[in-house]
Amino acid sequence: MHSFLPILLTLATASASPQAGPGDVKARVDAVFHEYDRSDSPGCALGVYRDGKIVYERGYGMANLELGIANSPQSAFDIGSTSKQFTAFSIHLLARDGKLSLDDDIRKWLPEIPSYGGTITIRHLLHHTSGLRDYIELMDLQGVRTEDLTTDADALAILARQKAPNFAPGEEHLYCNSGYFLLSVIVRRASGQSLRDFAAARIFGPLGMRHTQFNDLHTRIVANRATGYAKAEGGGFGIEMGDWEQTGDGAVQTTVEDLLLWDRNFYEAKVGDRQLLDAMHAVGVLNSGKKLQYASALYLENYKGLPTVSHGGAWVGYRAQLLRFPEQRFSVACLCNLAEANPSRLAHAVADVYLGALMRPETPKAQPKKSGKGYPTAPAAALQRLAGTYRNPVSGQILTLAVRDGNLSGETGRRSFTLVPGDAGRFRIVGLPGGSSEVEVESTARGARPKLRVTTTDEDDNVESETFEPVDLWSPTAAELESFAGTYASEELDTTWRLAVADGKLVVRHRGLPEEPMKPTVAGVFTLDGLSLTFQRDTGGRVSGFTVDEGRVKGIAFRKASAG
Q: Which stretches of 2-52 are assigned E, i.e. beta strand?
């Protein structure tokens, strides 16, 4: 593991080009944000830090389209999951104070959480290895929307209702907002202060971060707050804000100027000490001994040969990234108020401008020929071999590939995309919002359809890999479809779903779920917009219920309450 003690390199102050003047560098940075540098679009605020000082800051686009207020370095943004590092730091402060131990059983502080047989520790929460189901996805399945008012009590209640975890503690790493929400509750119970008040007294105040706060009240006025937006169907933008009051997993409101003070603390600890900072950078370890790239709400990675520490964030219409190059004492903060923005990509592009001369050049790749749409393509026979349906045996999700106009096109749920060939056996997915995905074709016997490995990096910089296996789709009869119709109740979600047959298709009728046909996959399994429903039958062969899997939530049980 590389050291996080500051390492001063002579080359660290070099720009991407030794001859480039400050004006040239700023122009190249502004070019990165050209699509947002306008008065009729939301955008971003940028802060570039070197040696503890701001070397460039600017706003792009509008903080408020209704009032005509532009984004600026003083605009306050909700930074989503980038907030988690402040929660983790608060926990480490309390551990240093002797108020708690990272190896405490969480039920010492959270008796509401059921015992699932294995001990879940605070350390598991920090590293996303607890196995707990994600409360945001649980509420989504319950029918709660981001514009609904929800509180700590609501989140605790739904977590307390869960009968099983996703996996045993320490067995896997699966990003989980429940863990960091629960850490906020632990802070309150260990310190006697809300996370908002604790962070204000122990972090934000001492560092002089006067424009930073955990917001735990949906009616609170936040000075200079940028409004969150998302692109609207048919053009333009719509307001995308939330009224959830949980903290810990998100909810920090801050500016790129205040984040400089936080970033500086990682080199010269005004709050905490070197031992605490080292603890923040200690990566998680699975029961198998495998080391993660995730520490205490910090990703430890490499970018073009340079070590990086980072974390992104995404909530309603806000997107954020704080990217640090510790050996160069260089960081980029990019905060955006548009759901479709990708601040991780933008921040890395800014780093390319300043640190390009220090970075390892990427190996030039042979470029495939282009199709009629301008995408690189591959031989028709190679693409046709991949056409067909694939299923993730863990989540139940379906991926369908077809060759259209010389390109390999894909569909999953309601989303369509194009697979652009790269190196041998690899494709880049183009056309999906947020994050990035790559498909690797696994070798197989000649003539057989291969398995596909899909690796996705989401907007919070979480990397997840899934395997999809070739399948032949099941076609249920009309009688079989009717047997699935009825009302189903979930004790874990405290809600009911109504399943009905409409126009020869099975549909779900429940708040928050699209009323569109579910797609049958293998026998007894249907998918719908990221959900996978696996039906069970009783000893008499009658449909008795189903379980739901959705990303960070697995195995939610529903029991049939009445027939269709």
A: 44-50
Q: 264: alpha, beta or left, given left = phi > 0 and alpha = psi -120 to 50?
A: alpha
Nearest 5°: CA angle at 205, between 215 and 53? 105
Residue 292: burial class (beta carbons within 10 Å; 0-12, 13-18, 19+): middle
DSSP code, position 530: T
Q: Are strands 252-254 and 243-244 parallel, antiparallel or unpaired?
A: unpaired
Looking only at the bridges linking them, the beta strands covering 149-150 and 243-244 are parallel
At 189, list the tokens: 């119970």
DSSP tally for the chain: helices H, then strands E: 13, 31
541 CB contacts (<8 Å, ≥6 apart)?
Answer: none
Rounded CA gap, 184 and 69, in Å? 33
Query: Taking a C-beta distance cutoff of 8 angstroms, is the pair 271, 90 a contact?
Result: no
pLDDT in tens for each of the 564 residues of the chain?
A: 333 333 232 233 333 433 445 669 999 999 999 999 999 999 999 999 999 999 999 999 999 999 999 999 999 999 999 999 999 999 999 999 999 999 999 999 999 999 999 999 999 999 999 999 999 999 999 999 999 999 999 999 999 999 999 999 999 999 999 999 999 999 999 999 999 999 999 999 999 999 999 999 999 999 999 999 999 999 999 999 999 999 999 999 999 999 999 999 999 999 999 999 999 999 999 999 999 999 999 999 999 999 999 999 999 999 999 999 999 999 999 999 999 999 999 999 999 999 999 999 865 544 455 555 555 556 787 788 888 889 888 878 888 898 988 888 888 866 788 988 887 678 888 877 766 788 988 877 666 778 898 988 876 667 778 899 898 889 999 999 999 999 999 999 999 999 999 999 999 999 988 888 999 999 999 999 889 999 999 999 999 999 999 999 999 999 999 886
Distance between CA atoms of residues 529 and 550, nearest Å: 9
CA atoms within 13 A on the CB side of 322: 28
Scored b (16 or more CB within 10 A) or e, 127-149 reads bbbbbbbbbbbbbbbbebebeee
List residues bridging with 212 in a β-sheet. Answer: none
**Alpha-carbon torsion, ordered 195, 199, 202, 207, to 10 deg:** 180
To the nearest 10°, the Cα dihedral for 332, 335, 338, 341?
A: 10
- Directed axis angle between helix 152-160 and helix 135-142, to 10°? 90
Q: Are 405 and 371 in contact (CB under 8 A)?
A: yes
Taking CA 501 as the corner, what is the angle to CA 496 and CA 506, rounded to the nearest 5 degrees?
75
Please name the amino acid found at residue 433.
P
* Distance, C-alpha 49 to centroid of its chain: 25
